[in-house]
Amino acid sequence: MVALAFYNLKGGVGKTTSAINLAYLAAQEGYKTLLWDLDPQGSASFYLGVSTAVKNETKKVLNSDIDLLTTIQPSAYKNLSVIPADLSARQADVLLSEGKQSKKRLGTLLASLKKGFDLVIIDSPPGISLLHDNVFNAADWVLMPNVPTTLSIRSYETVISYFEAQEFKKEKIKCFFSMVDSRKNLHQATINHYQHNNSFLKNYIPYLSDVEKMGINEAPLETFAKGSPAAQCYRELWAEIKKVCL
After folding, report:
1. What is the pLDDT of residue 153?
2. What is the mean pLDDT of residues 176-181?
3. Residue 101's pLDDT band (boundaries 50, 70, 90)?
4. Which stretch of DSSP H or E encloses residue 122?
5. Are strands 173-177 and 80-83 parallel, antiparallel or unpaired?
6. What Rg, from alpha-carbon coordinates, does the chain have?
7. Which strand (E) or helix (H) includes residue 81?
């Protein structure tokens, strides 16, 4: 089982849409895939039409009040299951700090999933906290979508520095550009600047309206706009991620 965490210090960079589309593509190729929504906004859960079955479910999982396996729900798509989020996920840092092995609790939970899944995709909330330390420890790879702008790149550099300071393996970070507008000179210049950086994947996701329509359709791109340029870009990104991470 491989765990891929979609993460960025910043919000609004295409993290959740990427997690959804790549999870769907993996499932369609036969990987038994689980998407674990850890963001209290629950956007990934919304896109897949799944909600928690128990009140404060995330809190109860982190408190060991219920078994993680009981929270897994099927999606409408073959081979794709979901652990949905709820607002109690906002308390994750407090809950994790109260337990033993506070930075490795998530890894212990992930280990219980190994027999049932080939791939776990974690949709992490933005920020840097104890929850994220857990994600960084537990994930095999940390996939970071970055808008090719100054502040987004600054976030990437901050995360790299944090990994070094905390002695996390920064080699597990793989970035890709998202929400790219090829008409903007800054976007093109930023992509060109990082094209030889081994931390960055070669494929990127353009800023296109079909991606935004995922919210209207509550579904992955492939299900309603398979022939679109955006869907093709996700397929190419998924092929590269498979080669690098799987």
Report:
1. 93
2. 97
3. low
4. strand 119-123
5. unpaired
6. 17
7. strand 80-83
Q: Which amino acid, 158?
A: T
Closest CA to 90 of 138, 55, 140, 125: 125
**Average pLDDT estimate for 24-38:** 98
3 state DSSP class of 238 = helix
pLDDT band (50, 70, 90) for residue 64: confident
Give the integer Cα–Cα distance in Å for 105 and 156: 25
DSSP 246: -
DSSP-derived 3-state class of residue 50: coil
DSSP 127: S
d(CA 188, CA 185): 5
C-alpha 136: how far from chain center: 12
Amino acid at 211: V
DSSP output for 142-209: EEEEE-SSHHHHHHHHHHHHHHHHHT--GGGEEEEE-SB-TT-HHHHHHHHHTTT-TTB-S---B--H
Give me the amino acid identity at 226: K
Owner of token pair 């976007």: 187
- Cα pseudo-dihedral 23, 24, 28, 34, rounded to 10: 50
DSSP letter, residue 117: -
Residue 34 near residue 82 (C-beta atoms within 8 A): yes
Name the average pLDDT for the chain: 95
Task: Give tens-digit pLDDT for 132-175.
Answer: 999 999 999 999 999 999 999 999 999 999 999 999 999 999 99
Sequence length of the chain is 246
What is the model's pLDDT at position 99?
62
Q: Give me the pLDDT at residue 234, please.
A: 98
- Count helices and strands in the chain by DSSP H and E runs: 11, 7
